[in-house]
Amino acid sequence: MTLTLGVLTAIGGFVDIGDIVANATIGARYGLSLSWVLVLGVIGICVFAEMSGRVVAASGRPVYGLIRDKLGPRAALANLIASFLVTLLTLAAQMGGVALVIELASGIPHIVWILPVAVLLWLVVWRVKFAAMEQALGLAGLAIVAFALALWWIDPDWAALAGQATSVAPPAGEPLPTYLYYAVALFAAAMTPYEVFFFSSGGAEENWRPEDIPSQRVNVLIGFPLGGLLSLSIAAVSAAVLLPAGMDVETLGQVVLPIALSMGVAGTAVVLFGFFMATVGAALETALSCGYMLAQYFAGRGASGCARCGPHGSTSRWRCVCWSVRWWCRPASIRS
Fold first, then answer.
1. Which pLDDT belongs to residue 212?
2. Distance (Å, rounded) from C-alpha 132 to C-alpha 115?
3. What is the DSSP letter of 192?
């Protein structure tokens, strides 16, 4: 088992399009005074993911199958509907994020890219093996580490950044309700449920067993904190460059502006590549998570294909569900 599953999950969860803009916006407005929220979010998602991965490794079954068995079909269905709708909306946002990154690189309006992006994602899910997907996207998304390099290159007032990071109160002149609103938004972004669905389902794909529990813990403890550090570096660069200038972040181009000023065209190209791979990874995570949810709930067992459906295989209900989600989650899983 490789560490790239945790890296891909963390990058797709912490550094998707919403988090990219949110961290830059918060950094430009509050500096690093909300970094404590990010730390809490990283701790929370690590606990949640480790618990879900341990359940899969110990039982050999994915999370949603167990939820249905333990809570009953009705309670599990309510959980499924809520989680599925949230994840589906997140998928739409990630597709828009991919299109925005392409617009920033090409100058062609993002609306033109929506359909090609959807086709691209479908082709990746349909044709690319799960292991290749997690390795390529997880590692390529690390190009966002350019923000950390830019922060070192800028050489900001480190004492001021440290003072912001150790503060748990809003800056002078900032209303407390707005500060708390951004705190809740940042924490919720770190605790998105699709990260855990994807991580635990990936464990089912890789056939985790009890002896894999130490490895999956290492996966969690490296991948998710790494995603948190990448998010923190985006906020720190904004705090070092945009906050002193009094600039607000309203577009993706303003997020990249500090990189363009400090590292030029080459740095900007690297960051845009990282943004592209991270948002594509997030879109694939959410798409596969939607398919995994449906397959695991209605099958009651594994996420991948009819071979594991057991007694459901002979029912018309299961055949209908199997075919409806087959295009979504099976192609990547059966070749893992």
1. 82
2. 24
3. -
d(CA 217, CA 223): 10
In this prediction, residue 276 has a pLDDT band, given cuts at 50, 70 and 90, of very high
Dihedral angle sign, alpha carbons of residues 127, 129, 133, 135: negative
The answer to whether residue 222 scores a pLDDT higher than 50 is yes
Q: Right CATH number for 4-334 from 2.60.40.2470, 1.20.1740.10, 1.20.140.10, 3.40.50.1370? A: 1.20.1740.10
Residue 202 to residue 333: CA distance in whole angstroms = 9
End-to-end CA distance of the chain: 12
State residue 13's pLDDT score.
56
- Burial annotation 293-331 (CB, 10 A radius, 16+ → b, else e): bbbbbbbbbbbbbeebbeebeeeeebeebbeebbebbbb
Over residues 208-216, mean pLDDT: 84
Query: Quick one: residue 69, left, alpha or beta (phi over 0 = left, psi -120 to 50 = alpha)?
Result: alpha
- In this structure, what are the phi and psi dihedrals at residue 105, rounded to the nearest 5 degrees? -80, -30
Q: How far apart are CA 17 and CA 100, in angstroms?
A: 9
Between the alpha carbon of residue 329 and those of residues 143, 260, 291, the distances in Å are 27, 39, 5
**CA separation for the pair 237, 256 (Å, rounded):** 10
* pLDDT, tens digit, 9 for 90 and up, residues 62-106: 777 788 888 888 888 898 898 899 899 989 999 999 999 999 999
Is residue 242 predicted with pLDDT exceeding 50? yes
Each domain of the chain, given as residue ranges in start order, spans 4-334
User: For residues 57 and 206, what is the distance between their CA atoms, to the nearest angstrom?
Assistant: 10
What is the enclosing helix (H) or strand (E) of 153?
Answer: helix 146-154
Q: Are 255 and 238 in contact (CB under 8 A)?
A: yes
Given a cut of 50, whether residue 315 has pLDDT beyond it is no
What is the reported pTM? 0.81
Contacts of 123 (CB under 8 A, 6+ apart): none
Q: Return the residue matching tokens 């502006």.
A: 257
